[in-house]
Design goal:
heterodimer, A: 19 helices, globular, B: mainly alpha, 7 helices
Chain lengths: 606, 207
């Protein structure tokens, strides 16, 4: 208590802390903003790792019958590319933004459970490292990011590959569930006075819906992974066909998680775009309520479409028809969103900032991915396209053209808030166009490659398919994208040190996060603002700012740093590491470590 | 009933420093309910897996051969009574009647351990009858489903032991009865899961 207050009332020029103190502070921090930055930087690092994996894949596929990667190594690389991009980039990047901006947008001082938030991050980090260490053993996961049974059984994959995968994903899933619980509770409980649900910024709404998807979908994955783990370590028969096990059950369980996962990845992107477009159009979001409802509807129906990934398994006409129709229905709320964004821009005073360019590009490319999605949602059509590069083109259009474009846009949009400096617009514009062109060069040809019959997940192809030129084009596109991404990283680093300084609200945005300093003070707002509208900084700026920058709240309590989250996370991931030894009592060391962490945690004063 | 009503008004921890919440509910309680929502899907998936594989074993022992309904009815009764003990323990703790709260909290622990004892007996008995994790589909699904449930009961027992010691040292009272209430929510939840398991895994085999 005393130390916290001393910190808040610190003199303007504090003594510069030692490097060791800074590192210790980051390791023990429970501040949502710092944890958000940790998530973001880690995800960016793994984005580059996953990007290198993608580059290796494309080099191997540049020409027919290349010998650059062996078939086995190719399996490892494409498995880790998918796993990395979904679990170590897409989700944590969204969570990074949730962490930093949800508490600011609802006018809170932190998330509901700050230490749990730190625990989520550390388990995520250690789990991510654990899974990637597999490369050092030459036994990276190789069963695809979908891990289809019975490929993952010890009979077909006797090495450590799949062990790394099931145990690593288990850790990452647990971290995500904790995060989901935390954000739901935060949004239910910690809204500022007057911040009714239907006044929350769209980004916070999408974080809310995404969190519900996380806490419902991830436990299904957890069970599915447990079943594989039991099959591999203790000889159960869940996916062993000889004993009566059914590999199709794995597909059901995996996609029951996997399809909501798709919306876990795209709804945050929708949230980001819904913040950027009104800001740079100088107009409130068109059809706010409908945007909220359609987001909720996407989340809800998103739970009833999983088997459209499985038309090729032969589920029968009734199931095929059901999942075709439910999937097609999702196009309606999604279309509503697209039109509402367009209507927001209609008649607005457009400012073509790089963030806005990314948002507009997202509308375009995501729609292309959405349309190809509608194509293979149709079950007869699907049989022609399943397991071809057409599907690869589709999901890269929604995940890069949707999620990554939105995330890059959010960098340009929110970087000034996080650092107090603008990102270079000149570099940004170049970066946008290079990445946009490179992306389309890579993935547009894949539509043809797929429709002409090239199967995915195969390490090479014959010249007779006559797909060499299109494949070479896709590979050239990857090189262009790489330039775009390096430019982005350079822009981030350069702007962090040299960027033009900016005020609190450089873009004239409407939501509460812009009513803080850039970067925000530890406690975010001097007093929790009271809001009466959806666009507080457009409608009632003076009043809100009087709260945010006025006299400091008496007896403010900020949670102190804690090292128990990182200690507990070490124990939890150590449990999984020791599992790999196959000595039955070894994991117990990790369990005891975790238990010590949890109990000390429970009795730590906050 | 009185417990729930009494509790919704004054939420447990009386820290003046925590700002009031948007809903007026206690944040720990809301967070825990959300977590239990997640747990529902966890057990839902395990139970679903059991049901999908029901009757697919290609070799014995089959469920009808070895499930012991009278014995399991008894262990189910023991677990259900432990939920009654939760209600009483919480009521007495909220009233500040420490000794009664101590007694009933210990009763939850004893009954919970009793249930685990039944399960340990059942598992070893089945093992002797030749049913292991890898014998057949029934063995795999049965042990994993009931094993995860038993693991949850074990966590609950450890949790309640910690609370009991705090109560014993005089660190618990009406002001922080919320700690017991949340542990109780967890306990009731695990109990309800067992009712589903008992119905679908045990009783369904004999109708």
């Amino acid at each position: 208590m005393a130390t916290t207050e001393a910190y808040i009332h610190a003199p303007a020029e504090p003594v510069r802390p030692s490097t060791r103190a800074i590192i210790w502070d980051w390791m023990t921090t429970v501040d949502h903003k710092k944890i958000g930055i940790l998530y973001g930087v880690t995800a960016l690092f793994f984005f580059i790792v996953g990007g290198i994996e993608a580059t290796l894949i494309r080099i191997q596929l540049a020409k027919p019958e290349m010998q650059f990667l062996s078939a086995d190594l190719y399996n490892q690389i494409f498995t880790m590319h998918g796993t990395t991009m979904v679990f170590l980039v897409g989700m944590p990047m969204a969570v990074a933004m949730f962490n930093y901006f949800v508490p600011l947008q609802i006018g809170a001082r932190d998330v509901a459970f700050p230490r749990l938030n730190a625990l989520s991050y550390w388990i995520f980090l250690f789990g991510a490292i654990f899974m990637n260490v597999s490369f050092l053993f030459g036994q990276a996961p190789n069963g695809g990011w979908f891990g289809y049974a019975p490929l993952t059984s010890s009979q077909y994959t006797p090495g450590l590959n799949v062990d790394f995968w099931v145990l690593g994903l288990q850790a990452l899933g647990a971290a995500s569930i904790m995060g989901g619980v935390n954000f739901i509770t935060t949004i239910i409980q910690l809204r500022a006075p007057g911040m009714r649900l239907m006044r929350m910024p769209l980004f916070t709404w999408m974080a809310f819906i995404t969190s519900f998807l996380i806490i419902t979908a991830l436990p299904v994955l957890a069970v599915a992974l447990f079943l594989v783990t039991f099959d591999r370590f203790w000889g159960t028969n869940f996916f062993i066909t000889q004993a009566g096990g059914d590999p199709v059950l794995w597909q059901h369980l995996f996609w029951m998680f996997g399809h909501p996962e798709v919306y876990i990845l795209i709804l945050p992107a929708f949230g980001i775009v819904s913040e950027i477009i009104p800001t740079f159009s100088r107009k409130p979001l068109f059809g706010y309520a409908v945007m909220v409802y359609s987001g909720a509807l996407i989340g809800l129906i998103g739970w009833g479409v999983w088997a459209h990934h499985m038309f090729a398994t032969g589920m029968g006409p009734v199931a095929d028809a059901f999942f075709t129709v439910s999937t097609l229905i999702i196009a309606i709320p999604t279309g509503v969103k697209i039109f509402n964004w367009i209507a927001t821009m209609w008649g607005g005073k457009l400012w073509l900032h790089t963030a806005m360019k990314y948002a507009i590009a997202m509308l375009l490319t995501f729609t292309i991915g959405g349309v190809s999605g509608v194509m293979h949602a149709t079950s007869p059509h699907n049989l022609q396209q399943t397991d071809t590069y057409f599907v690869v083109a589709h999901f890269h259009y929604v995940l890069i053209g949707g999620l990554v474009f939105a995330i890059f846009g959010s960098f340009y949009f929110w970087f000034p808030k996080m650092t107090g400096r603008l990102m270079s617009e000149k570099l940004g514009s170049w970066q946008f166009w290079i990445f946009f062109i490179g992306f389309n060069l890579t993935f547009m040809p894949m539509h043809w490659i797929g429709l002409l019959g090239m199967p995915r997940r195969i390490f090479t192809y014959y010249d007779e398919l006559q797909l060499a030129d299109l494949n070479m084009l896709a590979t050239v596109g990857v090189a262009v994208q790489a330039v775009g991404i390096l430019l982005l990283v350079y822009n981030l680093i350069h702007s962090y040190f040299r960027g033009e300084r900016c005020g609190r609200n450089p873009f004239g945005a409407a939501t509460l996060e812009w009513a803080t300093e850039s970067p925000p003070a530890v406690h975010n707002f001097n007093r929790i603002p009271e809001v009466h509208s959806r666009e507080p900084l457009w409608v009632e700026a003076e009043r809100v700012e009087a709260y945010a920058f006025g006299p400091m709240e008496e007896n403010m309590h900020m949670p102190p740093n804690s090292y128990w989250p990182i200690v507990t996370a070490m124990g939890a991931v150590l449990t999984f590491v020791l599992f790999m030894t196959n000595i039955w009592w070894m994991p117990l060391i990790g369990v005891v470590w975790t238990a010590i962490g949890v109990i000390n945690w429970a009795y730590e004063p906050t | 009933m009185a417990t729930a009503v009494a509790h919704d008004h004054g939420h447990g921890d009386g820290h003046a420093v925590h700002p009031p919440t948007s809903t007026g509910l206690n944040t720990w309680k809301v967070g825990f309910w959300v977590f239990m929502g997640s747990e529902t899907l966890f057990f839902g998936t395990l139970i679903g897996t059991y049901m999908v594989y029901r009757g697919t074993s290609v070799v014995g022992p089959y469920p009808q051969d070895i499930l012991d309904i009278p014995l399991t009815t008894l262990s189910t009764f023991v677990l259900l009574m432990s939920s009654l003990a939760v209600v009483l323990a919480l009521e007495f703790l909220q009233q500040g009647r420490r000794n009664l709260a101590l007694f009933w909290t210990m009763m939850i622990i004893v009954l919970g351990c009793g249930f685990l004892g039944f399960q340990a007996y059942e598992f070893t008995h089945f093992y002797k009858e030749g049913l292991t994790l890898s014998t057949n589909m029934f063995g795999s699904t049965f042990f994993v489903l009931t094993g995860f449930h038993g693991a949850h009961v074990t966590v609950g027992v450890i949790w309640l032991l910690v609370l009991w010691f705090d109560m014993f040292r005089g660190h618990m009272g009406p002001q922080n009865a919320l700690r017991l209430e949340i542990a109780g929510l967890y306990w009731h939840f695990v109990d309800i899961v067992w009712i589903v398991i008992f119905t679908l895994v045990y009783l369904m085999e004999f109708i």
